[in-house]
Amino acid sequence: MATLAEVLEARTIEAAPELVEQIDRGRLRCYACGHACPIPEGAAGVCKVRFNRGGVLYAPYGYVGGVQCDPVEKKPFFHARPGALAYSFGMLGCDLHCSYCQNWVTSQTLRDPQAVALPRDTSPTALVADALRSGARLVVSTYNEPLITSEWSVAIFKEARAAGLLTAFVSNGNGTPRVLEYLRPWIDLYKVDLKSFDDRRYRQLGGRLAPVLDTIRALHGMGIWLEIVTLLIPGFNDAPDEIDRLTSFVAGISPDIPWHVTAFHKDYHMSDPDNTTPEMLVTAAEAGRRNGLRYVYAGNAPGRVGDLENTRCHECRALLIERDGYHVLQYRLTATGACPACGTAIPGRWAAGFEGQITAAPFLPGRRLLRQI
Ligand code: SF4
After folding, report:
1. pTM greater than 0.85 (yes/no)
2. Residue 290: how many CB atoms within 10 A of its CB?
3. CB–CB of 168/190 below 8 Å?
4. DSSP label at residue 149
5. pLDDT value at position 112?
6. Which residue minimizes the CA distance to atom 5 of ligand 1?
7. What pLDDT score was predicted for residue 128?
8. What are the DSSP E strand ranges found in 65-202?
9. Distance from C-alpha of 78 to C-alpha of 294, rounded to nearest angstrom
């Protein structure tokens, strides 16, 4: 019986030439993520899913590790098509190894023997057809780190764009200039998980802070719609000084970038810190506002963070979108995406009007509910 490594090895294609460089006779450099691994013949990169065989770099292709229909608010994107269904797919593997990962079964495959997820063969055409059948307005590469499987995402995004869908990454942001240029023509929305503002913390997770900050700068410069999430973990990244530096950095790039500060719940190997309380979220959110961010949200604590689930105009504070968890209760933006009270343009990727909400809770495709809320 084939091992999982052999199963995945059979589901690959040659990596995009833009993401590979020949270092010397035996070694290739991969640019799909910020590790920029030098990979000798016969070896794999840090992510374990891209490998050098016979002087050719191979990349995952032709399968999913999971598919789910999510409300776009779950990704979270709060300034892009509120209420829309986000058809979400993931592959297997990751370039980091966060001890609190909520998707560790798919992300830590090949690294952690307890993380056993099997691939399901599919094609970009089949996935996009399923997304359309499900009523999706966007397709999202998520659940594992999408940068390391960028070729597969781009193949799907090309089909999705042709079908009139938006495309998105939910990513740790450990990118390179090359991979962002490779994605740029095909991607509309990008969520970066900014996990800390301390390089030592990033190194504990298997990465570095600098490439993530560079990715945030580059995405904003490219005009790709960007939202940032920080999972607030007591004792790990919640020091007031760190939150100040993190939010000042984001506001320095643009005060219009939405920042979501979300609650940690004990998961995977990280069970020491206490769960984040709503009060901690509110304190961090206040710091974000104080440091210049106009759109700050508190997540994973529905109904317990006051107004921090809602969108208000940054000029006149009129209520624009009222939410309860992932459920959109009110939508008051104009057809041009402006505040109806004062006319200020609200940053985001808005439709001409609220298109209804198919679901406020995730469900599996095939078990469609298509219930208008
Ligand atoms: S995707 Fe990242 S971790 Fe994987 S081989 Fe390429 S550079 Fe290395």
Report:
1. yes
2. 13
3. yes
4. G
5. 74
6. 45
7. 97
8. 66-71, 85-90, 120-121, 138-141, 166-171, 189-193
9. 13
Beta carbon of 47 within 6 Å of any ligand 1 atom: yes
- Listed in sequence order, the DSSP H helices in 117-239 are 124-133, 150-162, 177-183, 199-204, 209-222
Assigned token pair, 226: 């960007």
Amino acid sitting at position 134: S
Phi, psi dihedrals of residue 72, rounded to the nearest 5°: -60, -25
Q: Which atom of ligand 1 is nearest to the CA of 93?
A: 4
Ligand 1 midpoint to CA 37 (Å): 6
Mean pLDDT of each 10-residue bin along the chain, 373 residues long: 88 98 95 98 96 97 95 97 97 89 77 78 97 96 96 98 98 98 98 98 96 98 98 96 98 98 81 88 98 97 94 98 96 98 98 92 70 34
- Residue 101: what pLDDT? 81
Contacts 24+ apart (CB under 8 A), 333-342: 339/313, 339/315, 341/313, 341/316, 342/313, 342/315, 342/316, 342/318
For ligand 1, mutation pick of 8, 14, 20, 30 (most atoms within 8 Å of CB)? 30
Tokens of 334: 């104009």
CA distance 74 to 82: 11
Beta strand 189-193 with 166-171 is parallel
Neighbour tally for 54: CB within 10 Å: 7
pLDDT at position 268, please?
A: 65
Cβ-proximal residues to 197 (8 Å cutoff; 6+ apart), any chain = 209, 237, 242, 243, 245, 246, 249
